[in-house]
Amino acid sequence: MTTHSNTNNRLSGSKIIQSAILAAIVGTTSHSALADNTAGVKHPLWYNEPTAKTMELAKIDDLTNTVVSDGQRGETGFPAKDITLTDAQIAKIKEGNFTVAISMGWLGDDWASQQLIGLTETFENLGIKVVAQTNANWNDAKQIADLEAISVLKPDLLVSIPLNGQTTASAYKRISDAGTKVVFIDQAVEGMDPGKDYAAIISSDNLALGMYLADELARSIDYKGDVGAMYYANDFYVTNLRYEGFIARLRAKYPEVNLVVAAGHNDPNKGQEVAQGVLARYPNLKGLYASWSIPAMGAVTAARVAGKSPEEFRIVNENFDQIVALNMAQNDFIAGISSQRPYDQGVAEAKIGALALIGEETPPYVVVPPLAVNRDNLADSYKTIYRIDLPGEMTEELNNG
Hints:
Helix content is about 45%, strand content about 15%. The longest helix has 25 residues, at about 5-30. The chain has a 7-stranded parallel β-sheet, sandwiched between helices. Strands 8-7-9-10-11-13 form a 6-stranded mixed β-sheet, with helices on both faces. The protein has helices at about 5-30, 50-55, 85-95, 110-125, 140-155, 170-175, 205-220, 235-255, 270-280, 295-305, 320-330, 340-355, 380-385, 390-400; strands at about 80, 100-105, 130-135, 155-160, 180-185, 200-205, 225-230, 255-265, 285-290, 315-320, 335-340, 365-370, 370-375. With about 400 residues, it is of the alpha/beta class.
């Protein structure tokens, strides 16, 4: 990785460029002039209105080279692609004979699987031994128990995604206080500070991810009509940002796409139940933002039960899992995906952790850009995310569509 001073210089340069972009936009379009096409919707309790900065960034047509999200404490996002290790640093890491534990909040979907592949492959290449992998299965108490078991092993490094930033905080703090370096996936916990209690948070650029969802939903309904949103009800920083980015982009760019209902789920397996309730109350919706892949496929079933056809009702979701990719290839209800890059995120997490182990300073908030996916770029996007060609079944469906 470059020196910390070079990192700071790059961050400062990024701020200057971003400020110039914002100034140019502010000069042409007033935030106050935007109509609120989300008015009247009851948002979740954790929801924060998009800031003026977010609203200005939401007006940028191409976000490819723009870091939209800041960290939980306002830290500037550092691009994951700029995290590099020198030959000397790699040699020092390998000489350390370090150990790592990985504590996941859940497993069983492609996001978690690809994260683990990125993490374990990179750790193996760096000579860092994985001594534990745990799965909390969406249960705070289970994650706390997992962390307590990990603490007995005294690993040099912990990489983990906290399910709840409040309830699990003391468990993470005890591990950090015992001398284990901590790298957080997606969000930190309360009472822990970067550079002191943990090395960094590595996350997707989640505001941008939410904005891409708005882009894909608007495109799929020809930029006009009533839509709904099905959000994750729990107060989880990254999914909160995606919802906020979705709202900001609708307001900034799609005045004729009206958000008329928002409904929450607290369990990804309740997607069908929540979507059925939404469609019962709003039978004329043209589209739905349906959280990530599992709730989105529940919404697909709900749409079928309601007698909808893919021509009249479109669904977009976060995360590029096999199930939604196949549905998209079949030209069914899934019209757009705003995908994280979980393998790349896992690689970045491992690199940051390795640098922390040898005493290198690291940027406190590292972001991986999302990828907007639709049928037009499905094959290329699949190869980007999974590093292999689109499977034959999906290719056949895509060609038949």
